[in-house]
Amino acid sequence: MHQICRKRQGIEWMPVRAHPSEPKGLLANSAHLSNVESKPNFHTQAPTELTLAYGRGAAPKLVRCIQNAGSSAVGSDESVLRFKAIEQSLELMIGAANLACLVSAGIVPALNLAASKDLDEKIRALAHVALARLACDRSARESMLASGTCETLLATAVDPAASVRSACLGVVTQLGTYDDGRKALIAVHFVELLLALCRERHDGGPQTPEVQAAALTGLNRLCKTDDGQAEAIRMSAVPTALMTIASEHPEVRCQSAWCLALTTYEQTEKAVALEGGVMPKLVKMLSSDDVEEAAMRQRLRIAAAAFLMSMCNGARMEEDKPHPMGVAVDAGVCVALLPLVDEAASLHRMGEMTPEASDLAVYATKCIAALADSPKARKQFAKALPNLRELTTSTELALGKHAQIAIERITWTP
């Protein structure tokens, strides 16, 4: 408190620990301010200086600084203050009490306005970052849904600036993590917009990989509900994901595989995926040798294995159409799955099984069990039996269970 008063009056303040001779205590500081070094006028500050002394009491002041977006030119004093106010708000949102004060002060409508109307691209993007942070809190999320944030996001998703579009899709991803957010986004037909963003920009040009990846991530969140999944299938999500899975960007391929895994439960969608020639691409993704980053390579393999499992489960194709399992075996999926089992067994022996490696091994053993209905596949999977027997002793219950099922399917004889 005394530090703030002295700084406001332009008086140099030094910590007591560094200077023991400095007067301390309420009476000493009051006397020091009023009798010794008090100045008649406040220290002159720049018009772009954000003068805030308290955390909780700053919420209304910050909201007032954020409001009236779009009424000032880029680089003006008001624009600079608005940017600083949003930055300060993000710092205060770390604490639950401060976040509640900001929501009560009306920060959500102010951010909606800044995200859609401000002339500065940086402020629009930063406002979306703040909205994404607010979406993680239940009371703030309720305020967002009541204040028309979903409608605002519909407009900003086609913003001319790519940074703003990516930030907008980040808010969609956060909202899509929760049931109430998913329902609100589906209600305003966000699924259709996300699929359109995956294909091209609003002006008809090629979409950037970053925006494609963000749009697919948001779409995958919405597809976790029956309504979102049905809407995505109706709006041609499978052909769209088949197009983006061929991207050179690893994150786009990863999210495309998850999208296909969520939308290929029915036979019609499986047939569309097969006609799109997806199996050779899956074989390549199961190895992902072209990706240098280990974490990204692991994510790609998990997504590919999940999609393969979705294609193989419950497949009942018509006689005149190729069966997913037969196409997978002919494409070399069995050979691609064997190294995954070897790697899982090696990690199990060394006691270094991670959650990500366990997920990949579970998907791989499920795929092996499904493909083992084919005699040709059983012959190839026989090489994996020693490793599968080791995995049956894993402390990961799901992995041990599916490894045992895979062994039974491989060793089955008519």
UniProtKB/TrEMBL annotation:
Entry protein name: Rhabdoid tumor deletion region protein 1-like protein
Protein source organism: Chrysochromulina tobinii
Xref: InterPro entries: ARM-like, ARM-type_fold, RSP14
